[in-house]
């Protein structure tokens, strides 16, 4: 591994954040009382940029929760003379990062206030705050400042990211699968079986997720707090798990890739979730897309169980649940360079690309 300078040095964090003065707006931190106005602002921006989603009040309120967040310092809203929100920014981190410490930038400007320098100044503030958060983490590991963009976003926005030194590094495909077609029946071998998601199995599912995604670029372990956070649109009745009722405990304990938390659960005789399909329902998006759908938020399989049709079984169970509730399509998002070969799996099941997005980052 190449030598890394201290994170405080690499982050190059400014002592003071740059002022945001453009557009004749008043600037202050966001507050929970802003949730309804912020929802309106975010959805009007999404409509103007032809983005394939709209948010709910519950999703926006999630921004103001999470013990790791300091909304007073990590957010900014621009308010016009009439008291309407016209711009917003949130800078977020992820607790539990162990291989790359990350800062995520989020924000936008209402169409009425574009072309005034608001976006440029606001993004400069986000970048500076992101650098401060990385420096304050004290984690002597690689760092990343990241921002996501839809393929439909205005070219000016993407050029702004590039001017600040961001590079498009990852590309994602939004896929859909017509549920009018037959859903495959999958026979699992050994003691594997598909079960509905339940609270009792959620911790075992978190451990399965951390194992499944440890070889995925950009993924970091999820602690219990961040795993349970942001589930305002979670659809438990559309979510399914694959469990092994008779795991080879000795072999798993001997496997150098078995993480300590899973090993402890195995020794305690806890359940072993080996695959999962976690789904959400985004009713606000149905009108935007022009069809109803169930969304697979997360799909994963433990490394030791790949090649045993676990992912297909979990995904098929989710698709049947979507169809049973009258949904027209199954939808999910995938990294185009997914190391598990997921793209090929989805194509074989009839998923087709309908839109895309990308992640821009500065690597430190």
From TrEMBL:
<dbReference type="InterPro" id="IPR050680">
    <property type="entry name" value="YpeA/RimI_acetyltransf"/>
</dbReference>
<protein>
    <submittedName>
        <fullName>GNAT family N-acetyltransferase</fullName>
    </submittedName>
</protein>
<keyword id="KW-0808">Transferase</keyword>
<dbReference type="GO" id="GO:0016747">
    <property type="term" value="F:acyltransferase activity, transferring groups other than amino-acyl groups"/>
</dbReference>
<feature type="domain" description="N-acetyltransferase">
    <location>
        <begin position="214"/>
        <end position="364"/>
    </location>
</feature>
<dbReference type="InterPro" id="IPR016181">
    <property type="entry name" value="Acyl_CoA_acyltransferase"/>
</dbReference>
<keyword id="KW-0012">Acyltransferase</keyword>
<feature type="domain" description="N-acetyltransferase">
    <location>
        <begin position="25"/>
        <end position="195"/>
    </location>
</feature>
<dbReference type="InterPro" id="IPR000182">
    <property type="entry name" value="GNAT_dom"/>
</dbReference>
<dbReference type="Pfam" id="PF00583">
    <property type="entry name" value="Acetyltransf_1"/>
</dbReference>
